Amino acid sequence: MKKSLIAMAAAITVTGIGVNSVSAATYKVQEGDSLWSISHNEGTTVDHLKELNNLSSDIILPNQTLALDAQGAEEIYKVKAGDSLWDIARAYNVTIKQLKEWNKLDSETIHPGQELHIQVKNKVGDKSEPQSETTQTTAPVQSVKAQPVQTNDEQAGKEMTVTATAYTASCNGCSGVTATGIDLNKNPNQKVIAVDPKVIPLGSKVHVEGYGTAIAGDTGGAIKGNKIDLFMPSKSDASKFGVRSVKIKILN
């Protein structure tokens, strides 16, 4: 999918150090995009995108502009003897790849006195003196709190009992497009379930007792934990289903 990334920088002067303000990268939503597909392509999460853009739901519209990263600052770091890109990346909580991209480096070779541009929105503590790997005796920074994301492969074969409800796309104000971009109005026979992505990864194939094999292709504000919502083409079918406990198996 062709992406439309925009990155802008505006220079300001700060006494004592050279710092530039850096605006967040953005993405222009295209037809068929979803928060899930954008987060997957950009290496982030749906929750992170919603938080950055103050979204209360997963609904996005074509030509809408989404921030991909928080606004931060750029700091100039002067390389010292014994430094490596690995040391600096770890100290500033960034990746070696990012350091190379920001500084247009073709290799990981750096030299004392070299100035590196670092976007420090994730900076933790004082990084003016990062230690080299050979002399480091304690971790230079505290680890950043992060929640592990379970992948489809890790979940494959898992069986569980969940609370199931049903929903339909033909309701007032409903777009009919799922969080992963499936148009349910155009595909009324598609078996789709709404899930909590922390429990069942989006994009998984899931066998649901009494429903069949479905795609975990949607989310919902009330779908948290061991709950799923089954898509049904008609309101009457959804109403008849009610609330049930069903057994499911994540296939992949």
TrEMBL record:
<feature type="signal peptide">
    <location>
        <begin position="1"/>
        <end position="24"/>
    </location>
</feature>
<feature type="domain" description="LysM">
    <location>
        <begin position="75"/>
        <end position="118"/>
    </location>
</feature>
<dbReference type="GO" id="GO:0009254">
    <property type="term" value="P:peptidoglycan turnover"/>
</dbReference>
<dbReference type="InterPro" id="IPR018392">
    <property type="entry name" value="LysM"/>
</dbReference>
<dbReference type="Pfam" id="PF01476">
    <property type="entry name" value="LysM"/>
</dbReference>
<dbReference type="GO" id="GO:0019867">
    <property type="term" value="C:outer membrane"/>
</dbReference>
<dbReference type="InterPro" id="IPR036908">
    <property type="entry name" value="RlpA-like_sf"/>
</dbReference>
<dbReference type="GO" id="GO:0004553">
    <property type="term" value="F:hydrolase activity, hydrolyzing O-glycosyl compounds"/>
</dbReference>
<feature type="region of interest" description="Disordered">
    <location>
        <begin position="123"/>
        <end position="155"/>
    </location>
</feature>
<feature type="domain" description="LysM">
    <location>
        <begin position="25"/>
        <end position="68"/>
    </location>
</feature>
<dbReference type="Pfam" id="PF06725">
    <property type="entry name" value="3D"/>
</dbReference>
<keyword id="KW-0732">Signal</keyword>
<dbReference type="InterPro" id="IPR051933">
    <property type="entry name" value="Resuscitation_pf_RpfB"/>
</dbReference>
<dbReference type="InterPro" id="IPR036779">
    <property type="entry name" value="LysM_dom_sf"/>
</dbReference>
<feature type="compositionally biased region" description="Polar residues">
    <location>
        <begin position="131"/>
        <end position="154"/>
    </location>
</feature>
<dbReference type="InterPro" id="IPR010611">
    <property type="entry name" value="3D_dom"/>
</dbReference>
<protein>
    <recommendedName>
        <fullName>LysM domain-containing protein</fullName>
    </recommendedName>
</protein>
